Amino acid sequence: MTDSASTAPAHPGLPATGRSTAELLADLAALRAADLPTRGRRTTAYVYDSGRPEVRAAAEQAYLAMLEVNGLDPTAFPSVVALERQVVGATAARLGGDDATPGIFTSGGTESIILAVKAARDARPDLTDPELVIPATAHAAFHKAGAYLGVRVVSTPVDPATFRADPDAMAAARTDRTVLVVASAPSYAHGVIDPVAEIAADAARRGIPCHVDACVGGWLLPWLADAGAPVPAFDLSVPGVTSLSCDLHKFGYAPKGASVLLFRDEAMRLRAYYACAVWPGYTVVNPTVQSSKGAGPLAGAWATMQALGEDGYRELGRAALAATARVIEGVKAIEGLTVLGSPDATLVALGTDADLDLFALADESRARGFFLQPQLSVDGLPANLHLTLTGVSAEGVEDLLAVLAESADAVRPLGPPRPPADIVALLEQVDLTELDNATFAALLPAAGIDLSSADGPARMAPVNRLLDALPPAVRELIATRFLSALYRPPLGG
């Protein structure tokens, strides 16, 4: 070691000497001070809370018990196989399959979707230009899968009133190069279930696989049906559905990193796998995109399912359904606010009239303690605020409705939203790919973004108005550049 290396000052990420657990946990608590709350009922996106401390404790302890187990080689750690069989089997049993249904436990919905697209692509090795047909409301993960796997994504319009996929439009978009068609149950943006039976039937007639994205609804909809909700058939029981994804870290209330991908037959699951024996190390065979992976999320999902049981999930489903019905009814009484479509699940999209600034409403609601997720307009679909209502949401519905009413009253005098036309024009002319991080960061304050604040932008309405006024391709460039700048310490303060 050189003298300069031995005398270099310690980096804050790696101190010169080890620190106590108490110090570390205190630091973590300080770092999390600006985070959205992960428990309770005031964060209506990103987190799913069962509201049952004993269930969380079971998941946490199971997660920690498997923290060092590596899912890379199930022959070395057979516990992984035993747990995955139970988790996949239980999921399949609720979604039109049984213990014999082939499936894969993955790290999340995006990985499940990528693997479903890979399996469909690899089933057609004769094609050099494969295509994937989706409704415009399909999750961004399908676009990501297409970009990663070299599959062209063909997006089709949805019904502008119901926000459901249009089977005729999807049928018209299919070609000899189509390797997979997609339906959502429900779509994340509006909480509505696409006409799965029609989409799958047409795909089957043409010999094309059909994937149902039930990442957000797969583990919710059966319990809503048990509670009396009218849930149309959407799972593997539907003829023509060949694969289905279901996240357990959403309405399964498991720790993050838990999703299941189900296949109708073993041949398709095998195509999702990856194997490599052309290097001098151990033979690689992976059911997922990841190779080495901790077994904590799998154990956490298993423990959550065991701790809640059918009666626990049924009760949480009833509570989430009641909360959703109350929100839909309560929104009718708030001037300028409306529910888009007719949600089939406990996901609600709130729209506003032309005189009520949607993004300012989100800021006002957050200032009053409720986070609502802004969703931008695209393909003629209006911008809206997303709410995911869970088993604990019923306890806070009246508070939420009161905050929405107060926030609407506060925003209404501001008048219609006014996108910054000068900034929009500038960004449409500038080649964002040519800017370095420092130059890009210098543009951000004009859009209301302050990277020097550890708490992030206090008000996001100016940013969201700007993004909503720009074409999606420009939004994507800005978002990626922003992420790059955000993770650069010199630009972050």
Count of helices? 17
The mean pLDDT is: 92
Basic shape: globular
Strand fraction: 5-15%
| C-alpha end-to-end distance | 32 Å
Q: Could you state the oligomeric state of the chains shown?
A: single chain
Report the uncertain regions.
Answer: none
Radius of gyration: 24 Å
Mind telling me which CATH architecture of the domain at 61-304 this is? 3-Layer(aba) Sandwich
* Total beta strands: 13
Major pleated sheet:
7 strands, mixed
Fraction in helix:
40-55%
How would you spell out the order of helices and strands?
HHHHEHEHEHEHEHEEHEEHEEHEEHHHHH
Strand order of the largest sheet: 1-7-6-5-4-2-3
Characterize the structure shown.
It is a single chain. By secondary structure, the chain is of the alpha/beta class. The chain has 17 helices and 13 strands. It has a seven-stranded mixed beta sheet with strand order 1-7-6-5-4-2-3, sandwiched between helices. The chain has a four-stranded antiparallel beta sheet with strand order 10-11-13-12, with helices on one face. Strands 8-9 form a two-stranded antiparallel sheet. α11 (296-331) crosses α13 (397-411). The relative contact order is 0.12.
